[in-house]
Amino acid sequence: MTKQMKYSALNLVPIREGSSDIDAIEQMVDLAKHLEQQEYERLWIAEHHNAPNLVSSATAILIQHALSQTTHMRIGSGGIMLPNHAPLIVAEQFGTLKTIYGDRVDLGLGRAPGTDMATASALRRDQHDGVYKFPEEVQQLLKYFGPDSNQGYVKAIPAVNKNVPLYILGSSTDSAHVAAREGLPYVFAGHFAPQQMKEALAIYKELFQPSAYLKEPYIIVALNVIVADTFEESQYLATTQAQVFASILNGRMRKMQPPIDDLGDVLSPREVALAKARLQDSIIGDKASVNQQLDAFIEQYGEIDEIMAVSYIYDTKLQHRSYQYFKEVMDERNQQ
């Protein structure tokens, strides 16, 4: 019997070709409502800046909007890029969210700026050292959310004693050390940087120190997931994802494109090869093949606690269907 796994979702609030920024936000809300209906554990919203194809720059505002349009599903950040923000302001914002919405708020924290260096310089209160201060600033946030007796003169009101749960995000081994040392849940970005995933997960499990927040390791892995009625349809839908990756790799940041029969019609051979290399680390297929791919993932990387699905699908109805099918696969696995 395999370990039961929760399932959740990550959304970058992409703008689809032919759509506007307000359309992207409305699509995010529709997806949140659908995921809640499907009993997903949580929806997280990413933080990206100076990306004309994404509307996920003001992450806390989008989280608030999604919370206001749902009733019980957890909503959080995947993540707040801490080098861009003073910990005091982050604590104030998320303490306020928990004050309004109760225990539905997650705070995922990343140590990268989530943008290019020129934009990072425009964002940050000081220059370029935020990445190196990440462990210290995580500790500051834990203090701000903790009891009044632990506070200094500066308090993050109304965050005091709110205990908003923190999650450490990572795409390399560095953040695994931070999460393990602080006794916090660890979230690996397998959807775009799986190269160090096996090593990072092993480090986290081996070095984890129980804390007041978590007694044993808790691992979430974000993966690209596309589930369709047939394997062939899933491969066709995945050409949208391939175009997204190619757009990132060549720096064009195009809006999300419709699927296409032949990627060679719109991408160079090099771009096709790079995109397909990324797709090899994705979960794409019909329900039966997705189930087999999950078995292979667990065999390679070990058991985890939660899969956070990222689904780049142009047609929102088919995106919703994919999340429904993924839920059905996960529920069936969990009942075995």
From TrEMBL:
InterPro entries xref list: Bact_Lucif_Oxidored, CmoO-like, Luciferase-like_dom, Luciferase-like_sf
This protein's record includes keyword Oxidoreductase: yes
Enzyme Commission identifier(s): 1.-.-.-
Annotated Gene Ontology cellular component terms: cytosol
Record domain Luciferase-like: where: 21-245
Signal peptide start-end: none
SUPFAM superfamilies per UniProt: Bacterial luciferase-like (SSF51679)
Domain of life: Bacteria
Alphabetical keyword list: Oxidoreductase
Transmembrane segments: none
Enzyme class at the top of the EC tree: oxidoreductase
Molecular function as annotated in GO: oxidoreductase activity, acting on paired donors, with incorporation or reduction of molecular oxygen
Family, per entry: To bacterial alkanal monooxygenase alpha and beta chains.
PANTHER family, per database record: LUCIFERASE-LIKE MONOOXYGENASE
Name by which UniProt lists this protein: LLM class flavin-dependent oxidoreductase
Native source organism of the sequence: Staphylococcus coagulans
Organismal lineage: Bacteria, Bacillati, Bacillota, Bacilli, Bacillales
